[in-house]
Specification:
about 350 residues; alpha/beta; Helix Hairpins; Alpha-Beta Plaits; four-stranded antiparallel sheet; NAD(P)-bd_dom_sf
Length: about 350
Amino acid sequence: MAAPDPRVRLPDRTKVRSPIAKISIRFGIALGIVLVNWAMVVVERGGYRDSFDKDVSVFDALYYTTVTLSTTGYGDITPVTTSARVINAIVVTPLRLVFVVLLVGTTINALTSQSRQEFRHARWRKRVHDHTVVLGYGTKGRNAVRAMVLKGADPRQIVVVDARSAAVGAATEAGHVAVQGNATDEATLRRALVDRAAAVIVALDRDDSAILTTLTIRRLTDSADVVAAAREAQNAELLKQGGANSVIVSSETTGRLLGLAPTSPESVAVVEDLLAFGVGLDIAERPVRPDEIGRHALELDVPVLAVLRDGAVLPYDHADSASLRAGDRLVHAVAVTDG
């Protein structure tokens, strides 16, 4: 089984202590065993005999404790009274076993932890397909992921790619698989298994990086839907030529809202409400029902914004929206209520 790639991080289902915390706990237990054993030998040191000078001092007791716990002993200090031998039999020997198990357990835990990670990575690579890859986990990427999860997407079916360790950590904390690396690098995209993805969201900060990344994505897959964010409208066409199915121009959208705000702030509030998924007004999409075929989009019981037909977007008042067809999809507004 191949070693897990440290740049691919799987979400942990349970709270995992840091390696330093694990070592500290084991060290504390081992030290506690040594101190307990040492105290018992000091109390019963009159029942022990030192082959060198006959007397067992406090430091001799510490020496005897460490030697006894780590080995079977050298025979230079031995229990000679019945009480000392009984304590060795019923207390020291179990402590010795616990001490050895603790040391061996640390090694076994390290080995099993490595094997467990290898197994999880191998299983993930084998099972994942039709997932969504989000390139960039900044403001845009994070909100894109949040919207997908609120719409019912499985967090485990979302793979986040970001070069920043903090962003990768935040993604795994949210339950997503994360890959640390440059999104423009083909090797990074391969680690995210872009070639098996159903959709790729390009949410990078720079348009040139987004264009290069889109071209690289299309080298790996022709089937995935690619949605890209652009800061400048002039780069939107380049992204589409590079293979993006749709492009969101953030600067134009922001500019339009800013221009609308002085004269119609309420309209801006409605648009912001529509964009804030999960509260107030939302935009939803559903297929046309059999009883709606042949009807006008404006006659339905939901406020239809557009009709999706054969890859085209028809506004609600378009002439072709006057007669809905089988296979059409409706984009409509919906009010989200609590509970």
